[in-house]
Design brief:
This protein has about 290 residues and is α+β, with helices and mostly antiparallel strands. The protein folds into three domains: about 110 residues, Pseudouridine synthase (2-Layer Sandwich); about 100 residues, Alpha-Beta Plaits; about 60 residues, PUA domain (Archaeosine Trna-guanine Transglycosylase, Chain: A, domain 4). Helices cover about 30% and strands about 35% of the residues. The protein has nine helices and 15 strands. The strands form two sheets. Strands 1, 2, 3, 4, 5, 6, 7, 8, 9 and 10 form a ten-stranded mixed beta sheet that branches. A five-stranded mixed beta sheet has the order 11-13-14-15-12, with helices on one face. β13 and β14 form a beta hairpin.
Length: about 290
């Protein structure tokens, strides 16, 4: 992330607020929309959006996109998530049986039906459980951690585990420790954000600038491809990327998303097609503000 720090130093605070992301440590109580709306009003922005809904009682990592960075939301939503939580089993059962059931039916690709109260269509979907580990047990309360594909419902995962064990289970507490490239250790509380904004209003933007990631951090998700400086303006106006526009050879397969830069200048997110000398077509272009 060295290049991100370099880009951040080059940007003014206004540029970061126009195309930036804040990694919020969501408290228990408000909805994800409430947190996004709070950030929007606090910073007096046109709009904000969050990268993946957390239930009101769930805490932890909730990245909030600012102004034009809201256009990046769809690229981040499918990223893997990591959680730590406490589940309660309804009847006594041997720990080994729980671990065996997790290994047998709740590791790898599983089928999951969204909860009744979810906003998505209730149809069975495949999701991948990349890790599911029991950390500690205290009576019927079990501390666990899990790493899952984006879009996995952890509350439903615990319910289904309890059903499979024949004893029932439900989730007591849950905290998101990571959402894609955004980690708990780098998150900021709403209180600390408020303090940074108060300093900003007084003319000291150092704390606020430290909190905001430039939108260019999307380059951590996809391969970065460099284009020639003289081609940048045409591509920003909608031209696809031709092989001749590249600064060098890019060995990237067809149908992959890439982040396109002209040196440190972010151009956009493109999809490779490699057809008739056209290397890639745009999915999102960060056009200059006029």
């Amino acid at each position: 992330m060295v290049y991100i720090e370099r880009i951040k130093k080059q940007k003014t605070i206004k540029e970061l607020l126009e195309f930036g992301i804040i990694n919020i440590d969501k408290p228990s109580g408000p909805t994800s929309f409430d947190v996004s709306d709070f950030v929007c009003k606090l910073l007096k922005l046109r709009k904000t959006s969050h990268f993946g809904t957390l239930d009101p009682k769930v805490t932890g990592v909730l990245p909030i996109a600012l102004n034009r960075a809201c256009k990046l939301t769809g690229f981040f939503l499918g990223e893997d998530k990591k959680y730590v939580g406490i589940m309660k089993i309804h009847e006594d059962i041997e720990l080994n049986k729980i671990k065996e059931m997790i290994k047998e039916k709740f590791t790898g690709k599983i089928k999951q039906l969204p909860p009744v109260k979810s906003r998505v269509k209730r149809q069975e979907r495949e999701r991948e459980i990349k890790g599911f580990e029991i950390l500690e047990i205290d009576g019927k309360d079990i501390l666990f951690k899990t790493e899952v594909q984006g879009g996995t419902y952890i509350r439903k995962l615990i319910h289904d585990l309890g059903e499979a064990l024949g004893v029932g289970a439900h989730m007591l507490e849950l905290r998101r420790a990571r959402a894609g490239i955004f980690a708990e250790k780098d998150s900021v509380s709403l209180y600390d954000l408020e303090k940074a904004v108060a300093d900003y209003v007084k003319g000291d933007y150092s704390a606020l600038k430290k909190i905001i990631y430039p939108g260019e951090i999307i380059g951590e998700l996809f391969p970065v491809v460099q284009i020639r400086e003289e081609s940048a303006d045409r591509i920003l106006r909608g031209q696809p990327i031709y092989e001749k526009n590249l600064t060098g050879k890019a060995n990237i397969g067809i149908g992959n998303k890439i982040c396109v830069f002209s040196k440190d200048r972010f151009v956009g997110v493109f999809k490779t097609i490699n057809d008739k000398k056209i290397f890639a077509k745009p999915e999102f272009v960060l056009q200059p503000i006029k």
